[in-house]
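Trying the structure run again after the queue cleared.
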Amino acid sequence: MKSALEYLGKSLTNSLSYSSEVLFEVGETKSMSSFELEMTSWAMAFYVFSEIELSLPILTKDDLDEDFLLKVSEFNNEQLMEVTQSVFDTVNEEVSQGVLIPRVRGHIFRTVSLLNLKLQNHLDFVEKFRASPESETSIQDYFKNESEEFKEWMIRFLDEEDQKDLMNQLD
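Done. Tokens:
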């Protein structure tokens, strides 16, 4: 059974890739609002991911102590949110009335690519230094107190192949 972090980590990565695709379709088949919606969904899902991640115990390895690893984890989360905010700031400052010029598209794409790289690095950190999926609370336990609307949104955010597995766990 996959862990909540595995579901979300994979979906976060795929969502950033899809956001980049949407960005290059702006003006042809998509609007700038479509890109903003994708990035807003990503930010909400990352918040859920970081809440789950920070609730897990840290596995100390080698000579690294728990306080240091916790600071690295928190720093990574902060960096990811700062880069995400940078994407929104660029959209708000540089895109007027939904018109996206190529220079700005390139800048936003570069920032989303940086976000994806930082996310990949953080996912590697989480895999190495956070509790293993076997010791993680089931995904059902994480979402038991959430509204039905939240559960439905989370399921829609996940990849198609993961949706069925997750729905079975939540039932």
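The mean pLDDT is 82. Worth checking whether this holds up in the mutant runs.
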